[in-house]
Design a protein that fits this description.
This protein is an all-alpha fold. The protein has ten helices and no strands.
Length: 175
């Protein structure tokens, strides 16, 4: 799979790196490495190129000055739809409400956006557990519950959901 989509992935990485390199760092996790882990999580599950690209670029609109129209010109409508749906609305102050808004938009955008949101949350949980970031675990647990509920309502069937459920159990043990 990786060989079949080397050029689009490399193009997406270049766009991500160029669009975000001059912006002040927001958040604590390294953006490009996190984005790569999300993309590879989707790729390892056998999802198609547009879903992988959407996962790779899921933080692009939040972390750069790039517009949704520019994303669409570079990568097409499906990828732009995933990226827009997974983008948090920073005008919403409460982090759980902000996440709920994004998950609701992912449900409207469809399965590809929900899959990208799942892979993103899996990486955020795995990173927090690996680094012992216990203060983040309660919010991550709330996000997992919220996302699993919406995925159930949308009849999403993916091995990513089993990973989220497993992470939910691990987080409860570490809190």
């Amino acid at each position: 799979m990786i060989i079949a989509c080397e050029e689009p992935l490399e193009h997406a990485l270049k766009v991500l790196f160029e669009a975000t390199k001059s912006r002040p760092k927001k958040g604590r996790k390294p953006l490009v490495v996190h984005s790569l882990r999300v993309a590879f999580k989707l790729m390892s599950q056998g999802y198609g190129l547009n879903i992988v690209l959407g996962g790779l670029l899921h933080d692009l609109l939040e972390k750069s000055l790039m517009s949704p129209q520019q994303v669409m010109r570079h990568f097409g409508l499906e990828v732009a739809s995933i990226v827009q749906a997974t983008t948090n609305d920073l005008r919403i102050r409460d982090p759980i409400a902000r996440y709920a808004d994004s998950v609701a938009r992912c449900a409207v955008a469809g399965e590809p956006a929900l899959l990208a949101r799942c892979a993103d949350l899996i990486d955020n949980c795995e990173r927090s557990l690996a680094l012992g970031l216990k203060s983040r675990l309660p919010k991550l647990s709330e996000k997992i519950h919220l996302l699993l509920q919406v995925c159930k309502e949308e009849d999403l069937d993916s091995p990513l959901l089993a990973e989220l459920k497993s992470l939910q159990v691990k987080i409860k043990r570490h809190r």
